[in-house]
Design a protein that fits this description.
The protein is α/β, with parallel strands linked by helices. The chain is built from 13 helices and 12 strands. It binds pyridoxal-5'-phosphate. The site of pyridoxal-5'-phosphate has 13 residues, from helix 4.
Length: 399
């Protein structure tokens, strides 16, 4: 047998399974053995999908709305995305500027494939969601990663991003609110960045998947700020997943200039085709129905965030900035690491799972060793149990 024939394509040398999914799989294994696992690893809401959304899906099935749809999504849904953006941000996106995708992840993948190629540098940031960098690499471009600082709450700044721009830079890919930090690109920094980037002729791609999960009413109108200056080079990726507790339904969108939407439509027509028809009907209900469900979930996440931060503050060696959005805290646990004990945050997260049965995600998954991500998409009771075990494990290490 020619072993070379078994070799995978070269691109697979540089890509592995999304590391944020590993903890979930291990937790599942332990749970099957009857272990009381506290899952602080989840990257998804613990809330049920709202009832009016599931009802719309049931109705779609009953009405046999179960066939192919337009590749880019049913008109009603693309119009619903446009109306939401009009209402929420005061910006206009026509239906031919919106493509419905299998989650925000696919929208970002389309953006990378439509815009980036060999020789291009694409600036993004860390700590960050690993998929953004992997997608840039899959598109044969080179990611240039700007580091944000824990002592500045991981805030993204225009200056830091612009300092990474070279004549080869094609785009800046931003995630705000960010996973795993919950940090935002502030409106002031966005204005500064938009003005500078406009003159450089760069594209801006914004992952807005957590856009509905921002605490304390901090204004975050990035679509308008960038759109006012450079709408023809702005691509937005949105998602139903986190806002409406719909991760499993796989529904997101790309909104951008018509040429990019058409490219995304073409890419999708040769890969997955339309988003599941039933999900699309559910999506219409989510976007056009009452938004009180979003407010209620946000209020609950805020209570949890504040409580988790209070519990963690009990141990001064755990340093943790206050996330402004999303549903994660990202504490620095480096004080507990030592050359002769637990040496890395991967070992820390593994030990925490082994000894205390708490799932977290090591900072290495977000290109930031020395930290761990705790998701507070869990009940207060489970969070208290999880943080208690987390602190007990940390304190038990010699450090
Ligand atoms: C920062 C970020 N962007 C995008 C996504 C994609 O979510 P989905 O494809 O479910 O919309 C996720 C999911 O975890 C995420 O954390």
């Amino acid at each position: 047998m020619n072993t070379d024939a078994l070799r995978l394509a070269d691109r697979m040398q540089h890509i592995g399974m999304s590391p944020t999914m590993k903890g979930t799989m291990e937790a599942e294994r332990l749970r099957r053995q009857g272990v009381d696992v506290v899952d602080l690893g989840a990257g998804e809401p613990d809330f049920p999908t709202p009832a009016h959304v599931t009802a719309a899906a049931r109705q779609a099935i009953d009405q046999q709305f179960t066939k192919y749809t337009a590749n880019m999504g049913i008109l009603e849904l693309r119009e619903a995305v446009g109306s939401r953006y009009q209402q929420d941000y005061g910006v206009t996106y026509r239906p031919d500027e919106v493509v419905m995708t299998a989650g925000g992840k696919q929208a970002l993948h389309h953006a990378a494939f439509a815009l980036f190629g060999p020789g291009d540098e694409v600036v993004t940031h860390a700590p960050g969601w690993p998929t953004l960098v992997e997608q840039i690499k899959l598109a044969d471009a080179r990611p240039v990663v700007v580091r944000t600082r824990a002592d500045e709450g991981f805030a993204l700044t225009a200056d830091a991003l612009l300092a990474a721009v070279t004549p080869r830079t094609r785009a800046i890919v931003l995630n705000s609110p960010g996973n795993p930090t919950g940090a935002l690109l502030s409106e002031a920094e966005a204005r500064k960045l938009a003005r500078a980037v406009e003159s450089h002729g760069l594209w801006i791609v914004i992952d807005l998947c957590y856009e509905k999960l921002i605490y304390d009413g901090v204004p975050h109108n990035l679509p308008k700020i960038f759109g006012d200056v450079m709408r023809d080079r702005l691509v937005l990726a949105g998602s139903m997943s986190k806002s409406y507790a719909m991760t499993g339904w796989r529904c997101g969108w790309l909104a951008g200039p018509k040429a990019v939407a058409s490219a995304a439509n073409a890419l999708q027509s040769h890969s997955t085709s339309n988003v599941n028809s039933i999900t699309q009907r559910a999506g219409v209900a989510a976007l056009t129905g009452p938004q009180t469900c979003v407010d209620e979930m946000l209020a609950e996440y805020k209570t949890r965030r504040d409580q988790v931060l209070r519990w963690l503050a009990d141990e001064p060696r755990v340093r943790c900035s206050v996330p402004q959005g999303a549903f994660y805290v990202f504490p620095d646990i480096s004080e507990f690491l030592s050359p002769n004990g637990v040496r890395t945050s991967i070992e820390f997260a593994d030990g925490l799972l082994r000894d205390e049965h708490v799932v977290t995600t090591a900072g290495e998954a977000f290109d930031t060793p020395g930290f761990v991500r705790l998701s507070y998409a869990n009940s207060l009771e489970r969070l208290q149990e999880g943080v208690t075990r987390f602190l007990r494990y940390a304190r038990g290490l010699s450090g």
